[in-house]
Design goal:
heterodimer; A: alpha+beta; five-stranded mixed sheet; three-stranded mixed sheet; 21 helices; globular; B: alpha/beta; Rossmann fold; 3 domains; six-stranded mixed sheet; two-stranded antiparallel ribbon; 10 helices; 12 strands; 34% helix
Chain lengths: 518, 367
């Protein structure tokens, strides 16, 4: 796999790295490799890694990539792995100008991986970890048979995305230290006993009260023991690993899938920002420093291809790039802060700052705008990024529109260019990566050891067919009947699968309640 | 370089073939495959390859796009890359997979449990032949591929900077060496001809022809998989018979009565003129609605079949297509006279759905 780079490319790798560092980018050491199209396709099919555990879906992805490559539909220009050191791949039949663009693009990605907080809990030795996963799965295959393991992986992939992307940031509540106030009051084992002289104790801490407290505590504890999980959980995978009756190897396979899902999650959460950031910097570095005259046309052609938008589709490269440029411009021209935010008059917003003394034109390195976007790349993800920085002016300038299904024509049609609607729609599609929110709300439903999941409805119903099939797979892991509560056409419905047949019923008062609501 | 992904890819293809097998009945009724042959790739939609997950269903709220569209303009369907949950486009879980018609024929054979055909005649041996068609990284020195090995060594030396253009000396290392590798191919030696006969009398309508086309297509696909260099001949008849080309065969429409014996005679003459039965595997297929003109012609047919055709052919397949008119009696005549004869196989096809069973009936004996 390891190929030494040709001299010209190796030189560019060094030159561009220096330029990028001067501009303030801060990245892991980055290793570039030059591969042919087939090798690139393999790595792309493996999600960026040189090896993964054996599974047919990688083969499926490979076939798709190879086909679209050979038909000339798409071309993978760059690929980079979030790892320390970062690995990035160059396609060997690209022209030099493409290599330069890609190298600049990749350094910005590496900077993003290293500095964006949503990536801070990802495993930076994932290259090794993936190889270990492959080895572990191969060992299970040797021991339990190919089809057995494959079948189990298929089942697990059904719930692969049921993780909680925020959980890496949560800290388990630290060991309970009795509060000082409690200690003064003498709370011990949850029972309050006020300090008192021996002869007064009977009056200050009446035995009945102590007894009542003890009883209440007992009841609470008993209830807590029965209620499982303690609160609704989004990390269904973890709950399965900890509670489903799995064999060791199965639990390990599930853990592997979960770990990989968490590794990839931040990339899904920051697609627009990450690509926008990388495009911003390749554009900046190329046009400012690296382009030779004879490369200009090719560069423009390929760059415009990267940021082109097709109808009905938002190009994350384009939106990310333009939003970052917009932020830089706004912060350089003072278009921010309470006063600006609250200004509703379009005309006044446009002429912002013109009535005051002309401000010195600031831009580029060390300008407030540049500093702002560095801060943005550190603390935001796509949802907060859009929420905070999408402005009506931006929507107007970039011709964003809202489209929806038109039942009369059976097509998607443009509805309008309403800012609030567009923003809401964008945020919705970015929340949880466009996937529904599913919670474990009861692991011992109706005291029968059945699993009860709930969909938290926020505007769009679940697709029933897929939900029913997913439940079947879930049953293969859980082993006992599984239920899913979902709102379909404004009615609460309970989907169930008991291992033999699927069932669907409207939720009424008669049904036992799960431990929690979402 | 052998890629690791090939194993996963192989496995994926295997799964796809399994799915196609499960859905074979449906594929057999698909008209658009007609005209493909051998190594042609055919696109086949495969269901249920994807993994079920919890996902959003119909999204009435649409999504966000970018461009100069006015309100009311249609936008292209958003797909995977788009922002905004999709789900409005139909059939997103169906995936198109390319496979060759040969592979499809193999699947057909496996699913219908069709035995490989045992060719008759003096050339009945299939010869095996080693064909040097690939390369690999290990092998005997005698098979070393000099040119490729040299090229790799040269490349390595240039890359590592040890190549000296003034003194171009290339030294092979172990990892440079490339060897020829071979594949053993089966070469069926026998010759085969399929003679299709079709009744084009007034009672055979377009629907019937469509069924015949499909049936003939699958017969063709399976036999071609079993023989190399198979020939096809086409005969149409009403009261007279004539040999025609493939296109005419499938598109010709005549009015008039039916005299099946005319086709049999025509086939007999063709065989006598071109296909000596000790050298050729001959397959006769006759498609008709079974509405022959007279009893006497029925007798004539049986006589020709018995004395002149059956001794020469591997099989005679009669496929009776249901028609709105006519008695469809000919199949009964055949049953009456040839129920003991294994070379005569009949099947009724009332609709496209019956093709599956019909093919199975024809080829299960493996002749």
């Amino acid at each position: 796999m390891s190929t030494r780079l040709p001299k010209e490319i190796a030189e560019q790798v060094v030159t561009i790295a220096e330029l990028a560092r001067e501009e303030g980018l801060d990245f892991f050491q980055t290793i570039f490799e030059l591969l042919d199209a087939d090798q690139i396709n393999q790595i792309a099919a493996y999600g960026g890694f040189p090896q993964r555990y054996p599974h047919w879906r990688f083969g499926m992805e490979y076939e798709r990539l190879r086909k679209s490559h050979s038909y000339g539909l798409s071309r993978i220009y760059e690929m980079v792995i979030n790892n320390d050191p970062c690995y990035a791949y160059l396609l060997n039949d690209n022209a030099m100008v493409d290599h330069k663009t890609v190298i600049a693009h990749v350094y910005a990605h590496c900077d993003f991986f290293k500095n964006n907080i949503w990536f801070q809990h990802t495993n930076r030795k994932m290259m090794d970890e993936m190889a270990n996963h492959a080895t572990r799965v191969r060992r299970y295959i040797d021991r339990h048979g190919f089809e057995e393991v494959e079948r189990f992986i298929d089942v697990c992939l059904s719930i692969e995305d049921l993780i909680d992307p925020y959980s890496p940031f949560m800290r388990r509540t630290p060991m309970e230290h009795p509060h000082t106030a409690d200690r003064q009051r003498g709370v011990e084992n949850g029972i309050t006993r006020y300090p008192a002289k021996g002869y007064m104790d009977r009056f200050i801490n009446p035995p009945e009260t102590i007894q009542a407290q003890r009883k209440k505590l007992h009841a609470e504890k008993a209830r807590e023991r029965r209620v499982e999980p303690v609160k609704p959980l989004r990390d269904v995978l973890l709950y399965m690993i900890e509670n489903a009756p799995l064999e060791d190897w199965q639990a390990d396979v599930l853990a592997i899938i979960r770990e990989e899902a968490y590794y990839y999650a931040p990339q899904g959460q920051t697609k627009i920002m990450n690509e926008g950031w990388a495009t911003y910097w390749h554009s900046h570095l190329m046009t400012r420093y690296c382009l030779r005259d004879d490369e200009l046309i090719t560069y423009c052609d390929h760059h415009s291809g990267t940021v082109a938008s097709a109808p009905g589709r938002l190009n994350p490269y384009k939106i990310g790039l333009e939003l970052l440029r917009d932020i830089e411009y706004r912060w350089n021209t003072g278009r921010y802060g309470k006063e600006w935010e609250e200004l509703d008059d379009v005309e006044k917003r446009r002429n912002w700052g013109k009535d005051k003394n002309p401000m010195p034109r600031v831009k580029g390195k060390e300008s407030p705008g540049r500093e702002k976007i560095f801060q943005v790349r550190k603390i935001h993800n796509d949802v907060t990024f859009i929420d905070e920085f999408l402005t009506p002016e931006f929507v107007d300038r970039h011709n964003l529109y809202h489209y929806r299904y038109d039942p009369t024509t059976g097509r998607m049609v443009v509805v309008n260019r309403d800012f609030d609607k567009i923003k809401r729609q964008l945020l919705f599609s970015l929340s949880n990566h466009g996937r529904p929110y599913i919670y474990v709300v009861d692991g011992n439903y109706a005291n029968r050891g059945e699993l009860y999941l709930a969909h938290k409805h926020n505007g769009v119903d679940l697709q029933i067919k897929y939900a029913v099939e997913t439940l079947k797979n879930l049953h293969k892991i859980w082993g006992r009947p599984v239920h899913l509560q979902a709102r379909i056409d404004d009615e609460m419905v309970l989907f169930s699968y008991d291992g033999h047949q699927s069932n669907q019923q409207t939720i009424t008062e008669d049904l036992p309640k799960p431990a929690h609501d979402v | 370089m052998v890629l690791k992904i090939h194993k996963d890819h192989q496995r994926f293809r295997q799964i796809v073939k399994g799915r196609i097998r499960d859905d074979l009945r449906r594929f057999l009724t698909r008209g658009e495959l007609i005209g493909k042959e051998g190594k042609h790739l055919v696109s086949i939609p495969v269901r249920g390859i994807d993994t079920p997950t919890f996902r959003y269903g119909e999204n009435d709220d649409g999504g966000v796009g970018q461009g100069n569209a006015k309100a009311g303009d249609a936008v292209g369907p958003p797909d995977g890359e788009g922002i905004g949950p999709g789900g409005t486009e139909p059939g997103q879980h169906i995936m198109e997979v390319d496979i060759t018609l040969d592979e499809l024929a193999d699947i057909l054979g496996e699913e219908l449990k069709l035995p490989r055909i045992k060719p008759k005649g003096k050339h009945q041996l299939t010869s095996t032949k080693d064909r040097y068609s690939g390369i690999r990284q290990s092998g005997p020195e005698s098979l070393r591929h000099f040119k490729r090995t040299f090229r790799r060594a040269l490349r390595r030396q240039i890359i590592t900077g040890t190549y000296n253009p003034d003194r171009p000396r290339i030294v092979f290392e172990r990892r440079d060496k490339i060897y020829r590798s071979w594949r053993t191919v089966l070469q069926p030696q026998s010759n085969a001809v399929i003679i299709y006969m079709m009744d084009v009398s007034g009672s055979m309508g377009d629907d019937q022809k469509e069924v015949v086309r499909l049936e003939a297509f699958w017969i063709d696909a399976w036999l071609r998989r079993n023989y190399q260099g198979i020939e096809s001949r086409y005969i149409v008849h009403d009261v007279r018979a004539a040999e025609v080309d493939r296109h005419t065969f499938f598109h010709l429409r005549e009015d008039g009565g039916t005299k099946i014996s005319s086709a049999f005679k025509c086939a007999r003459d063709l065989i006598e003129a071109r296909y000596a039965s000790d050298e050729w595997n001959i397959y006769l297929f006759h498609f008709s609605d079974g509405d022959n003109s007279s009893e006497s012609d029925n007798r004539e047919c049986c006589r020709i079949l018995q004395d002149q055709l059956l001794p020469r052919v591997n099989m005679f397949g009669y496929c009776q297509v249901a028609s709105a008119y006519g008695s469809g009696n000919f199949i009964n005549v055949l049953h009456e006279h040839f129920s003991q004869n294994e070379s005569v196989i009949t099947s009724r096809v009332n609709s496209k759905e019956d093709i599956y069973d019909s093919i199975k009936a024809f080829f299960t004996p493996g002749k």
